[in-house]
Automatic annotation (TrEMBL):
This is DNA mismatch repair protein Msh2. The keyword DNA damage applies. Residues 303-529 form the DNA mismatch repair protein MutS core domain. Keywords: DNA damage, DNA repair, Nucleus. GO terms for cellular component: MutSalpha complex. SUPFAM superfamilies: DNA repair protein MutS, domain III (SSF48334). It is found in: Nucleus. It holds the Pfam family MutS_III.
């Protein structure tokens, strides 16, 4: 057996059951055994592409993929089946890991899958720990949510009924796709039947919310100290209870955050789930109002645009669509804040020209900030991403001018416009002022406009300037230098020397004609005889 075959079998043996491994070959891709059956049955809905191969003493089932099928498999494995994905490439007779990603962290597959509003929601996973009080039929819940895509953690603690109605409202608001249940504890003695009844109620609530759930029993493997390492320095002082720390530690293990601490350390935000000022909906209300899905069968054309979100959504950017979905899940209950938003809406309605500039021009030019920020956090951003962020900073100055015009033209609504729109823009400009200055002095914009390629200004470093000068000299047209340096030859008298050659050429042609005529005449005579 060759070493590359032994390496393949080793990868398949060590692969986790929740991971799909794809092996990149020269012009196609291959997957083996359980992964091959999964792709054939769940994605292509056919086992026609399955083949058998003998590697040493082991017989394996495999499925080959072309480039188009590979792209489809990447999207469906992560978005539809919610599996982790790893791609291996052969190097020195060994299969080495080339790319990896999951629903919570797309990683190397972000360019293949792209971005969408729903993708951000599918990236949230929750962990739950509850303490049962038999005397009062009450549950004390400690919950943690983790969204790897937005690098955000959310914690919550509250008392709930035996039917977990408050938990259901929390789930509607946070939209997790999966729940990890930590072992429960009790404040008093309970028999096993009562514990089982509470567990059934919890499972019923999770099923009603359409959430997959698994039990996390290995509490000894949880390292609560890792939570402090993951949080950004601005959030390290927030109070986190011991149960919430266990939930966050379990999420770090489940999402394989601990396997790549260098990428995630000091990057997470920590938010506290708050219910004050918001109206929370349960699953029954969300379905009855048809916020995001229809509750009855319709044909495809109507079903795609019949939800309340589809009818209300006129947002230009993905960020706006995500914000609208959050507002619809958690409508404001505070009258003062509702009136504040309505003031801004009325001010924009009265200033039709400014509204058109915002909607038809400026918002169209806003890049996907979430995608750029993820690349910056993961240290995968290129010079192009940095320059796109700089363009957004410059665009904010135009936003400021337009909003300032709205602010100065509506006296009664000016305070609301200032607090909700104008001040946040000015604060962002102040925070990105040094970044904009750095890009202006570093990026060679003129070179990009001429060649379409981003590069650093050569003038910022002597060695870089020397390299750029040498490169420009190599790229200069050689013909220009040739004609500038070579002296034209003196052709005087050449015509006189060529006259004998021309005469010889003419006599040669005449001689050839005579010979050809003689040969033809001889052949005619011979044929006559």
């Amino acid at each position: 057996m060759e070493s590359i075959d032994r390496s393949l079998l080793k990868v398949l043996q060590k692969k986790a059951s929740g991971t799909v491994a794809i092996f990149e070959r020269n012009e196609f891709y291959s997957c083996y055994e359980d992964d091959a059956f999964l792709i054939a049955n769940e994605i292509f809905l056919s086992e026609v592409g399955l083949r058998r191969v003998q590697i040493g003493l082991t017989e394996l089932t495999y499925h080959n993929l072309n480039n188009g099928q590979y792209t489809r498999v990447v999207r469906d494995v992560i978005l539809m089946l919610h599996y982790r994905l790893e791609v291996y490439v052969a190097c020195d007779n060994e299969w080495i890991l080339k790319a990896k990603g999951s629903l919570g962290c797309l990683g190397d597959f972000e360019d293949v899958i792209g971005d969408s509003v729903e993708l951000s929601e599918l990236s949230t996973v929750m962990a739950l720990s509850y303490i049962m009080d038999y005397g009062s039929n009450e549950n004390h819940l400690s919950i943690a949510f983790c969204n790897l895509r937005d690098m955000r953690m959310t914690i919550a603690e509250f008392a709930d009924t035996e039917h977990f109605s408050n938990l259901e409202k929390c789930i509607v608001s946070m939209v997790p796709r999966e729940c990890i249940i930590l072992p429960s504890s009790s404040k008093s003695f309970e028999d096993s039947s009562h514990i089982g009844k509470r567990m059934n109620s919890l499972e019923t609530a999770l099923k009603r919310a359409d959430i997959t759930f698994t039990e996390f029993n290995d509490l000894n493997s949880i390292d609560t100290k890792i939570v402090e390492k993951l949080l950004n320095i601005k959030y390290k002082g927030m109070h986190i209870s011991e149960q919430q720390r266990k939930c966050l530690g379990a999420l770090a293990l489940h999402l394989h955050i601990v396997d790549d601490m260098q990428m995630y350390e000091d990057h997470f935000q920590l938010l506290d789930y708050k219910s004050a000022g918001y109206m929370y909906l349960d699953m029954a209300a969300v379905k009855a109002l048809e916020l995001f899905s229809l509750s009855y069968d319709e044909d495809t054309a109507i079903g795609q645009s019949g939800t309340l979100f589809d009818l209300v959504n006129k947002c230009r950017t993905h960020q706006g669509q995500r914000l609208l979905r959050d507002w619809m899940r958690r409508p404001l209950f505070d009258l003062r804040r509702i009136n504040e938003r309505l003031d801004v809406v009325e001010a924009l309605c009265e200033m039709g020209a400014c509204r058109d500039v915002l909607y038809e021009d400026l918002l169209r030019r806003v890049p996907d900030v979430a995608s750029i920020s993820r690349k910056l956090l993961h240290k995968k951003a290129t010079l192009q991403h940095c320059y796109r962020l700089y363009q957004l900073v410059r665009l904010l100055k135009i936003f400021e001018e337009v909003i300032n015009e709205v602010h100065s033209s509506c006296d009664s609504f000016a305070p609301s416009v200032n607090d909700l729109c104008l001040e946040p823009i000015r604060l962002a400009l102040l925070q990105f002022d040094k970044f904009a200055a750095l890009i202006e002095t570093t990026v060679d914009v003129t070179y990009f406009e001429e060649n379409g390629i981003y590069r650093i200004r050569p003038s910022i470093d002597d060695r870089l300037l020397e390299t750029s000068t040498s490169d420009d000299e190599c790229k200069s047209p050689p013909t220009v230098t040739l004609f500038d340096t070579v002296t034209p030859p003196d052709l005087t008298g050449v015509d006189d020397e060529l006259e004998p050659l021309a005469a010889f050429h003419s006599s040669l042609l005449i001689s050839c004609d005579i010979i050809a005529s003689s040969v033809a005449l001889t052949r005619c005579c011979n044929s006559g005889n």
